[in-house]
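Convert to structure. Protein one:
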Amino acid sequence: MQIEVLKSKIHRVKVTGADLNYIGSITIDIALMEAANIIEGEKVSIVNINNGERFETYAIPGPRNSGEITLNGPAARRVQKDDIIIVITYALMDFEEAKTFSPWIIFPNEENNSLT
């Protein structure tokens, strides 16, 4: 049996921008993506702490150590600059493997989205 489990989480980062006219996705500082083991193009779930919105898009890398978290395209309508969000990914795996799997969870500084 295969089940879907938490793979990665960037817990509580501040939205730095919302670009409605971009094609789509979420731009995430590549340092945060690497720390959370999220790759370019990976499907991500976004939870907006400020307004309760939940939606899906895909990740694209932003400049390293910039703290950038920008929602692009239609997703830009679901956030405002300075909202706090959680970025989540999931993975399908065998039920027995899932019992011992440890997800990558990071807790950046939510003031500037840094890892320190």
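Protein two, convert as well:
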Amino acid sequence: MSDTAVPRTPSKPVTGRPADREGGAGRHGNASRRIADGLRAAILSGELPPGSRIRQEEVAAQYGASRIPVRGALNILQSDGLVTLIANAGAWVAQLNLAECEEAYQLREQIEPLLISASLPGLTAEKLDRMDDLAARMERAATPEDFLHLDREFHDLSYSGAETVVLADFVCRLWNMTQQYRLAFYRLFEEQGSEIVHDEHRMLVRALREGDADQAGLVMRGHIRRTRQALAQHPELFDGARPGAS
């Protein structure tokens, strides 16, 4: 059920850190990054679900900022694959239909084995020990949110040894695009058995410890495919208004 990576009404004001007034044009970049970090956390946690309207005036009020850094934050999140900006209409949390999600997962099946292979030479014993610890903690995770948080840290760590120009950023974008659908899936089906998911995590660490890039790639490909096939069985997770529809 997992490859592994985060509803309320669309008009709900976004949340973030306590407001503090930003002063001066030179600080807009820092303010944009701060706002983007807060919105990113709200989107990946599911607090802002796919298709939610993001109203610039509400974000500006929440963060005590002008609309200039808010627009900058939304541009950052659009680059991350988390926000859809529509000219003269506004901003929405990015939303996929089933076909788009299927395509994203098919891309992941092909490119993440490449990334794990590139990462392998840079994975230290300390990193692999940390992955073992994360795998054990996932088995004890109390909620889908906890599981997916640990899961994303596990996979981010597995790729952390790679030095790439575009591949790691592209994989991160695909993860961002599909994160909320994994979360919705686990919230609905957390009672289903997931032992095979934990087995795959352990198999991946074992292959990496043995320096076997081919086996690690095979484990990753099957791991991703399992979630893709499970999501395809539940098209209701992709229902909802498309951004800009109203």
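The longest strand covers residues 83-86. The chain has nine helices and three strands.
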